[in-house]
Amino acid sequence: MAPLPDTFFMQQALAEARAAGEAGDVPVGAVLVVDGEVVARGRNRKEQDLDPTGHAEILTLREAARALGAWRLSGATLYVTLEPCAMCAGALVQARVGRLVFACRDPKAGATGSLMNLVQDPRLNHRVEIAEGTCGEQASALLKDFFRARRRTGSAERGELAERLKAPDSKSGVPETVSKVRILHSPPC
Ligand SMILES: [Zn+2]
User: 86 C-alpha to center of ligand 1: Å?
Assistant: First the structure.
Protein backbone atom coordinates (compact mmCIF):
# COMPACT_ATOMS: atom_id res chain seq x y z
CA MET A 1 0.00 0.00 0.00
CA ALA A 2 1.26 3.46 -0.91
CA PRO A 3 2.04 5.68 2.07
CA LEU A 4 -0.63 8.24 2.96
CA PRO A 5 0.15 11.76 1.70
CA ASP A 6 1.26 14.54 4.04
CA THR A 7 -2.01 16.38 3.37
CA PHE A 8 -3.96 13.51 4.99
CA PHE A 9 -2.18 13.99 8.31
CA MET A 10 -2.05 17.78 8.05
CA GLN A 11 -5.84 17.79 7.81
CA GLN A 12 -5.92 16.05 11.19
CA ALA A 13 -3.56 18.66 12.62
CA LEU A 14 -5.85 21.35 11.20
CA ALA A 15 -8.82 19.75 12.98
CA GLU A 16 -6.85 20.08 16.24
CA ALA A 17 -6.06 23.69 15.39
CA ARG A 18 -9.76 24.48 14.84
CA ALA A 19 -10.62 22.95 18.21
CA ALA A 20 -7.95 25.14 19.87
CA GLY A 21 -9.43 28.24 18.23
CA GLU A 22 -12.94 27.32 19.38
CA ALA A 23 -11.61 27.05 22.94
CA GLY A 24 -10.14 30.56 22.72
CA ASP A 25 -6.53 29.60 22.07
CA VAL A 26 -4.54 30.60 19.00
CA PRO A 27 -5.45 27.87 16.49
CA VAL A 28 -2.38 25.64 16.21
CA GLY A 29 -2.65 21.84 16.07
CA ALA A 30 -0.28 18.90 15.67
CA VAL A 31 -0.22 15.15 15.18
CA LEU A 32 2.67 12.71 15.49
CA VAL A 33 2.83 9.83 13.01
CA VAL A 34 4.83 6.60 13.18
CA ASP A 35 4.64 4.01 10.39
CA GLY A 36 1.64 5.70 8.83
CA GLU A 37 -0.36 5.85 12.07
CA VAL A 38 -1.23 8.78 14.29
CA VAL A 39 0.10 7.96 17.76
CA ALA A 40 -0.54 11.33 19.40
CA ARG A 41 -2.32 14.58 18.75
CA GLY A 42 -2.33 17.94 20.48
CA ARG A 43 -3.51 21.51 20.23
CA ASN A 44 -2.40 24.80 21.65
CA ARG A 45 -3.74 25.11 25.22
CA LYS A 46 -1.67 28.04 26.47
CA GLU A 47 -4.65 30.21 27.44
CA GLN A 48 -6.85 27.36 28.61
CA ASP A 49 -4.20 25.91 30.92
CA LEU A 50 -2.39 29.21 31.62
CA ASP A 51 0.74 27.35 30.61
CA PRO A 52 3.49 29.18 28.70
CA THR A 53 4.78 25.81 27.46
CA GLY A 54 1.35 24.54 26.40
CA HIS A 55 2.07 24.60 22.68
CA ALA A 56 0.59 21.96 20.35
CA GLU A 57 3.99 20.40 19.58
CA ILE A 58 5.06 20.03 23.22
CA LEU A 59 1.77 18.43 24.23
CA THR A 60 1.89 16.09 21.22
CA LEU A 61 5.48 15.00 21.94
CA ARG A 62 4.58 14.30 25.58
CA GLU A 63 1.56 12.25 24.62
CA ALA A 64 3.55 10.34 21.99
CA ALA A 65 6.32 9.49 24.46
CA ARG A 66 3.74 8.22 26.96
CA ALA A 67 1.91 6.20 24.28
CA LEU A 68 5.10 4.65 22.91
CA GLY A 69 6.84 4.25 26.27
CA ALA A 70 9.94 6.06 24.98
CA TRP A 71 11.14 9.65 24.73
CA ARG A 72 13.20 8.90 21.63
CA LEU A 73 10.91 9.38 18.63
CA SER A 74 13.47 8.82 15.85
CA GLY A 75 11.18 7.30 13.22
CA ALA A 76 8.37 9.79 13.80
CA THR A 77 7.02 12.63 11.69
CA LEU A 78 5.46 15.62 13.44
CA TYR A 79 2.79 17.50 11.49
CA VAL A 80 2.02 20.98 12.79
CA THR A 81 -0.07 23.77 11.31
CA LEU A 82 2.36 26.59 12.16
CA GLU A 83 6.16 26.75 12.05
CA PRO A 84 7.49 25.75 15.50
CA CYS A 85 8.90 28.36 17.89
CA ALA A 86 12.34 28.04 19.49
CA MET A 87 10.98 26.07 22.46
CA CYS A 88 9.19 23.55 20.26
CA ALA A 89 12.07 23.30 17.78
CA GLY A 90 14.33 22.51 20.73
CA ALA A 91 11.89 19.84 21.89
CA LEU A 92 11.90 18.25 18.42
CA VAL A 93 15.69 17.92 18.66
CA GLN A 94 15.43 16.56 22.22
CA ALA A 95 12.90 13.94 21.07
CA ARG A 96 15.04 13.04 18.01
CA VAL A 97 12.03 13.43 15.74
CA GLY A 98 12.98 12.33 12.23
CA ARG A 99 10.82 14.62 10.13
CA LEU A 100 8.87 17.83 10.57
CA VAL A 101 6.04 18.91 8.27
CA PHE A 102 4.59 22.35 8.90
CA ALA A 103 1.84 24.18 7.06
CA CYS A 104 2.67 27.87 7.21
CA ARG A 105 5.59 29.98 8.33
CA ASP A 106 5.68 32.17 11.41
CA PRO A 107 7.84 35.14 10.37
CA LYS A 108 7.79 36.59 13.90
CA ALA A 109 8.73 33.53 15.94
CA GLY A 110 9.45 30.58 13.65
CA ALA A 111 12.62 28.71 14.57
CA THR A 112 12.72 26.11 11.79
CA GLY A 113 13.57 28.43 8.92
CA SER A 114 12.22 31.94 9.58
CA LEU A 115 14.20 33.52 12.43
CA MET A 116 16.66 30.64 12.69
CA ASN A 117 16.80 26.95 11.93
CA LEU A 118 17.33 25.21 15.21
CA VAL A 119 16.42 21.74 13.98
CA GLN A 120 19.15 21.66 11.33
CA ASP A 121 21.99 23.33 13.21
CA PRO A 122 25.10 21.23 12.49
CA ARG A 123 26.43 21.99 15.98
CA LEU A 124 23.61 20.02 17.60
CA ASN A 125 23.62 16.24 17.88
CA HIS A 126 20.42 15.70 15.89
CA ARG A 127 18.92 17.13 12.73
CA VAL A 128 15.32 16.99 11.57
CA GLU A 129 14.22 16.74 7.95
CA ILE A 130 11.80 19.56 7.08
CA ALA A 131 8.91 19.85 4.61
CA GLU A 132 6.86 23.04 4.60
CA GLY A 133 3.79 24.43 2.89
CA THR A 134 1.45 21.42 3.23
CA CYS A 135 -2.10 22.90 3.46
CA GLY A 136 -0.37 26.23 4.10
CA GLU A 137 -3.20 28.43 2.83
CA GLN A 138 -5.76 26.70 5.03
CA ALA A 139 -3.58 27.04 8.12
CA SER A 140 -2.82 30.71 7.55
CA ALA A 141 -6.49 31.50 6.79
CA LEU A 142 -7.44 29.87 10.09
CA LEU A 143 -4.96 32.07 11.97
CA LYS A 144 -5.97 35.25 10.14
CA ASP A 145 -9.68 34.64 10.82
CA PHE A 146 -8.95 34.01 14.50
CA PHE A 147 -6.99 37.24 14.95
CA ARG A 148 -9.49 39.26 12.94
CA ALA A 149 -12.32 38.02 15.19
CA ARG A 150 -10.27 38.69 18.30
CA ARG A 151 -9.45 42.23 17.20
CA ARG A 152 -13.17 42.85 16.70
CA THR A 153 -13.93 41.56 20.21
CA GLY A 154 -11.06 43.61 21.59
CA SER A 155 -12.21 46.84 19.99
CA ALA A 156 -15.78 46.20 21.18
CA GLU A 157 -14.47 45.77 24.73
CA ARG A 158 -12.33 48.88 24.47
CA GLY A 159 -15.35 50.85 23.22
CA GLU A 160 -17.41 49.63 26.15
CA LEU A 161 -14.65 50.64 28.54
CA ALA A 162 -14.44 54.11 27.06
CA GLU A 163 -18.18 54.50 27.59
CA ARG A 164 -17.88 53.32 31.18
CA LEU A 165 -15.05 55.72 31.92
CA LYS A 166 -17.08 58.61 30.53
CA ALA A 167 -20.11 57.86 32.71
CA PRO A 168 -19.43 58.24 36.44
CA ASP A 169 -20.71 55.47 38.70
CA SER A 170 -24.17 56.56 39.89
CA LYS A 171 -23.46 55.90 43.59
CA SER A 172 -19.95 57.19 44.18
CA GLY A 173 -19.41 59.45 41.22
CA VAL A 174 -16.14 57.59 40.57
CA PRO A 175 -15.60 55.86 37.22
CA GLU A 176 -15.50 52.06 37.30
CA THR A 177 -12.07 50.54 37.45
CA VAL A 178 -10.49 48.88 34.43
CA SER A 179 -10.16 45.51 36.16
CA LYS A 180 -12.58 43.79 33.78
CA VAL A 181 -10.58 44.62 30.67
CA ARG A 182 -9.02 41.62 28.97
CA ILE A 183 -5.50 42.22 27.74
CA LEU A 184 -4.90 40.91 24.23
CA HIS A 185 -1.88 38.69 23.86
CA SER A 186 0.33 38.29 20.87
CA PRO A 187 0.30 34.86 19.25
CA PRO A 188 2.46 32.03 20.61
CA CYS A 189 4.84 30.12 18.33
ZN1 LIG B 1 6.03 26.46 20.26
Answer: 7
Ligand 1 centroid, distance to 16 Cα (angstroms): 15
Q: Give pLDDT, residue 182.
A: 43
Cα 15 to averaged position of ligand 1 atoms, centre (Å): 18
Cα torsion angle, 33, 62, 67, 40, sign: negative
Q: Which residues are catalytic?
A: 57
Angle between helices 136-166 and 6-22 (to 10 degrees): 10
Q: Let me know: does 10 contact 81? Beta carbons within 8 Å.
A: yes
* Confidence at 164, pLDDT banded by 50, 70, 90: low
Amino acid at 43: R
CA distance 165 to 177: 8
Going from the Cα of 139 to the center of ligand 1, the distance in angstroms, rounded, reads 16
DSSP-derived secondary structure letter, 119: G
pLDDT tens, position by position, 32-64 = 999 999 999 999 999 999 999 999 999 999 999
